[in-house]
Specification:
Oligomer: single chain
Structural class: mainly alpha
Helix content: 55-70%
Distance between the termini: 66 Å
Number of strands: 0
Largest sheet: none
Strand content: under 5%
Shape: elongated
Radius of gyration: 19 Å
Length: about 190
């Protein structure tokens, strides 16, 4: 029997299974970092073989989930810029980033469990999200909607308060208020204002 190559693209049904597993894993691991993998497989509606073909161990699942969610946020930047004015795209992307921050907070214990073991995998870096922020900031600077010279590092320092909000509380109003304040600060000194 021929085995598919590791680099071969996934069939559409296999891709749907993988995404369903990631969706269920996000909900389950956010609630309970040590949830049995069999519970995630059952709730995702896939068999153990399908589950373990995609994620051979807990570490692979948790790190892929983190990477997947981060990439979804990063990819949203280009999608929003294609459909919205730069200023609106940036603000809507900030809302998506806030949802990611709250989900990441819920996953923090699961990530810590898999990355803290001796010889365990490293936590993925934030490069895709930093790049996405840079793209949005440059588009806004070129449009004259934000002050010139704001770097992704500046931006993430300004929104660092997101990671202080408790995701188990009614976090949306607090996050929206913080992000509106950051947008006001970014607009201050914009040449187009």
């Amino acid at each position: 029997m021929n085995q598919p190559k590791k680099d071969a693209p996934l069939r559409s049904d296999a891709l749907r299974n993988r995404e369903r597993i990631l969706h269920v894993a996000m909900a389950e691991l956010t609630q309970r970092p040590d949830v049995p993998l069999s519970t995630i497989a059952r709730k995702a509606g896939v068999g153990q073989g399908t589950f373990y073909r995609n994620f051979p161990h807990r570490e692979a699942l948790v790190l892929e989930l983190y990477r997947y969610e981060m990439q979804q946020v990063a990819d949203a930047a280009a999608e929003l810029l294609a459909a919205r004015a730069p200023e609106r795209a940036l603000r809507e992307w900030m809302d998506r980033l806030a949802r990611f921050a709250m989900a990441k907070a819920g996953l923090a214990d699961a990530i810590r469990l898999v990355t803290s073991a001796p010889g365990g995998p490293a936590r993925p870096g934030p490069a895709p999200v930093l790049d996405a922020a840079g793209t949005l900031l440059r588009a806004n600077e070129e449009a004259g909607t934000i002050r010139p010279g704001v770097t992704p590092d500046d931006f993430f320092l300004a929104i660092a308060g997101l990671w202080q909000i408790d995701p188990r509380e009614d976090w949306q109003p607090r996050a929206a208020r913080l992000l509106d304040l950051v947008m006001d600060g970014l607009r201050a000194g914009a040449p187009g204002r």
